[in-house]
Amino acid sequence: MATIGLIRHGITEWNIAGRAQGLADIPLNGEGREQAVRLAGRLSKEPWDLMISSHLCRSRETAEIIAAAAGIGEHLIDERICEMDCGQLEGLNEAEWLGRWGPEWRSLELGMEKAEDVSHRGVFFLEELYTRYPDKKVLVVSHGALIGLTLQHLLPQVFTTTYIDNASLTLLTKINNNWDCLLYNCVEHLV
């Protein structure tokens, strides 16, 4: 039985400023690196077989810190688990969105990737991962929207919100062809 650990990357300056990062390649800040180190300390107490991360540097750096501390030799990059493309919202915060497009900005075509496309991308990735590594423990470092929307698609009765904390850990497994969430959005290692 595979266990998949979903990790949202550590915090960035744009996270703090409330700016939509999307596909912008924004690095971790000092706090984000410290979050990754703390999560690595937690994960180093368990055996993990493989690490996969998004190609964006905030995700990749989080994965590299964890893999080094936890002794995970294999670190793969997969662009399918990158963040939602935020289109014209990238680099801006909500006040700026409202200033440019008004309170109905969500109804406008601003070049954003559709939520259902993001969730399908995430579900397809997890299904393939489960098939390819049926008896492995795999860590996946990705992004808040991708993780949240994927969980909501897999287990809609459980996940009514898509919010995921930076440097959080969520554990999934699949039993009798049904996905199960063993741990959700855990940040106890950051306290």
UniProtKB/TrEMBL annotation:
It comes from the Bacteria. Gene3D superfamilies: Phosphoglycerate mutase-like (3.40.50.1240). Pfam families: His_Phos_1. InterPro entries: His_Pase_superF_clade-1, His_PPase_superfam, PGM_Phosphatase. This is Histidine phosphatase family protein. It comes from Paenibacillus phytohabitans.
